[in-house]
């Protein structure tokens, strides 16, 4: 069997395992069971997975569960103890210690005081939280993508599939940048119908065989908001961008898809060190002033 054929088989196995992990995160995930899904012995499969994703299966599961737990703290009224149990922590103390190490504060305090609370009405006034904004002219860019439907918090599943395909086909290059495209407003569209794309920048000559899709990111002026911290906190940054910065900017929105550029990787840094650029397309300044 050729090297390409071997890696094509691995790609399918990576996709199966990734899909299973995301669909069963709140269940008991036996790593031997994941090896069975991959149709390889645990001894070999764990090495293949780490070679492609640069982290162990166990580390992936822990990282994703902590991410989902942060989402529950932000969006639900579940007790902290219930959230800890839901995402596989043996006790509240273990969850508190692990969460604080990644998010910079204990879970109960994060729920009450985290950055996601930065733009919330209080007695008719929003908080004074400010974000760094720059206006940039960004050139048109070609992307390789995999679509995702459902909660934006779950787009990581599409990124796992994307990177599995790139590595197994030997297409990945270090200069590729992670991009998330988000087509719908989560305040208007039901969560299960939200459409998004996990993408990387790529030259137009890079093959885009299924499940990869080629997309084009429109060039032009963008308001670029730099956000530091967990992905679960970014709702506050979006609200500030639209409700506070945009009306005062004198600029108008251009009818193109906004996107997020991920400047570092959740596999490499803790959640409170993640850096994301939220990019809002703008009309040219001359048109905006007309």
TrEMBL record:
SUPFAM superfamilies: Homeodomain-like, Probable bacterial effector-binding domain. Signal peptide: none annotated. Pfam families: GyrI-like, HTH_18. SMART domains: AraC_E_bind, HTH_ARAC. Keywords: DNA-binding, Transcription, Transcription regulation. This is GyrI-like domain-containing protein. Residues 15-113 form the HTH araC/xylS-type domain. PANTHER family: TRANSCRIPTIONAL REGULATOR YGIV-RELATED.
